[in-house]
Amino acid sequence: ILKSEKYKKVICGFPGTTNAFQLAIELVCSFLVKIENKNNEDLKVSKMFYDTFLAIKNDFVGNLLLLPEITKENYQIIFTGHSLGGALATIASFHCINQKIIKSEPILITFGQPRVGNELFARYLTKNLKQIYRIARPKDLVTLIPLNGISSKKFRDFMLSKIDSLDEILKKQLHPIGYALYYISTQQMKLLLKSL
User: Fold this and answer.
1) Were both Cys, which of 29, 36, 115, 120 would link to 174 (CB 3.0–4.6 Å)?
2) How many CB atoms lie within 10 A of CB 157?
3) Is the pTM of the predicted complex or chain greater than 0.85?
4) Are 92 and 124 in contact (CB under 8 A)?
5) 91, 123 in Cβ contact below 8 A?
6) Are 166 and 143 a contacting pair, CB within 8 Å?
7) pLDDT digits 0-9 by tens, 115-170
8) Under 8 Å between Cβ of 110 and 41
């Protein structure tokens, strides 16, 4: 967790997948579990991602609560992560919104994030987060996992096609959060970060 008094921002960053074994687990652990939420809606996320978040939740929330800035509306809270870290940033932003831990409207920025939850979860987050930036490259395999809901034929057709949007084939069980920004350049990234 980083804080900038000058820019009035708190940045919550989450690390990505660290080794091949962890990636293999992400590929096979694709079943969904209900995520704790105040309205008891049927919001579901990947069990592997949720278990990983639950393992760090108390430390993360405890450290976040040490910052009085999170209760100020003039501070911007940014959740970010790459790969697995993107999934964790997504679940952490959900948790902070749902439990009303932060005052201001957070921003979610992910890089090469896997799919996280069911359609209800995606709708909830999209409704409650006005700024979501999901940065990915076309045909990035990590953005396809977990693979449930994607037949081998659809997967093969996608990998052999010239389709630029993963969103076209990811509409079954797990849904991407936000709209993907593909092939973002360093210049575009600088402009995006300056606009925040």
Assistant:
1) 115
2) 12
3) no
4) no
5) no
6) yes
7) 888 888 888 888 888 888 888 776 676 776 665 554 445 444 544 444 444 444 44
8) no
- Asked if 111 and 137 count as a contact pair (C-beta separation under 8 A), the reply is no
Alpha-carbon distance of 159 to 166, in angstroms, equals 10
Query: DSSP assignment of 84-146, as one string?
Result: HHHHHHHHHHHHHHHTT--SSPPEEEEESPPP-B-HHHHHHHHHH-SEEEEEE-TT-GGGG-S
Give the closest residue to 66 by CA, choosing from 158, 131, 1: 1
User: Looking at the predicted structure, is the pLDDT value of residue 70 above 70?
Assistant: yes
Cα 76 from Cα 69, distance rounded (Å): 9
Q: Are 75 and 104 in contact (CB under 8 A)?
A: yes
Burial-class residue 14 by CB neighbours within 10 Å (0-12, 13-18, 19+): buried
Of 50, 83, 53, 77, the C-alpha closest to 65 is 77
Whole-angstrom CA distances from 112 to 11, 15, 169 are 18, 12, 16
Helix (H, G, I), strand (E, B) or coil at 77: strand
- Token code pair at residue 13: 């960053």
Nearest to 120 by CA among 31, 41, 54, 38: 41
